[in-house]
C-alpha cells in the first residue's frame, strides 16, 4: 500500500499548528474529534436501521459523508500532534489492521459456532 503524501503546503501548515497549539490542547482536539467520529458512526447506523432516535431524514450518503469528514478532522489532529508523520506509523497501522481484522473475524466465527451449538 503506497503512503499518501499531503504535500509541502499541508506539512508546513501542520507544523505551524503544532507550534501554536500546546501538546495538551492537541490531545483535547484529538479526543473531541474521536468522540465526533463515534457520534457520526451512530448517525450513519440510524440511517440504515432507524430506531427511537431517527436522523431527521438524513440520507445514508449524507451521514457517510459526515463520518468521513469527522475521520479527516481526527487525522488532522493526529498529524498536527506528530503521531502519524512517517512510514513507520503507516506500517504499524497496516499491521494492526491485519491483526485486528483476523481477530474480529475469529471472534465472530466463534460466536456463530456457540450460537449454532446452542440451537
Biggest beta sheet summary: none
Order of helices and strands: HHHH
The percent of residues in helical segments reads over 70%
Shape annotation: extended
Question: Could you list the spans in which at least 5 consecutive residues all have pLDDT below 50?
Answer: none
How many beta-strand segments?
0
Straight-line N-to-C gap: 43 Å
Counted up, domains total: 2
Overall mean pLDDT stands at: 86
Backbone structural class: mainly alpha
Q: How would you sum up this structure, described in words?
A:
The model has no long low-confidence stretch (mean pLDDT 86). Helix 2 (23-48) packs antiparallel against helix 3 (60-80). The protein has helices spanning 8-20, 23-48, 60-80, 87-118. It has 2 domains: 1-85; 86-119. With 119 residues, it is mainly alpha-helical. The chain is built from 4 helices and no strands. Helix content is 77%, strand content 0%.
